[in-house]
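ingest -> validate -> predict -> emit
validate: passed (alphabet ok, no gaps, 171 aa)
predict: started
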Amino acid sequence: MTPIQSPVGNGDVHSPTPGETKYSPKIQRPPFLPPKGRPRAEAPAKKAGGLTKRAKLLILAGLTLCLCAYNGWLLLHCFTTPAKPQLNIGQIHPPVMAAPLDSRMDLSDGRINARNYKSLMGFKAHLDSLAASAGGQMQYKAFMQSHPGFLDSLELLNQLFQQQLRSPQHR
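emit:
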């Protein structure tokens, strides 16, 4: 390259840089352009926070591929797993305490099972504790309103069981 003179005209001679021609004066590069010597491909990567457009597209394609594979797996297992059987009304059993008294205890022979008697007396003790506590009084009153005469039935069963214990057939 041939040396060029400075535009100032003071006779300084310098060699042109790679972007300069012998006719153009040396102009300082703006700060937003990458310095010379670095490849131009690094500028968009630096500007985008380290990822080029191609890298972003590759990441997006990978995520899309993973999501499609997951959706395909879900669809495949949705149709291949056996369906659970529907619940029939006949399979629903009421709680033990909700059943009528005579269905839980076989009183046809006039005898009361000790296990059933013990569970009923335990429930009576629970009701008594509800009635005694301040927090359980609302629950106790609601139960008594929905089951009037329940305590009378329990008292009658208590008397029958006591008679059964005293009878000679039981011994």
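The mean pLDDT is 73.
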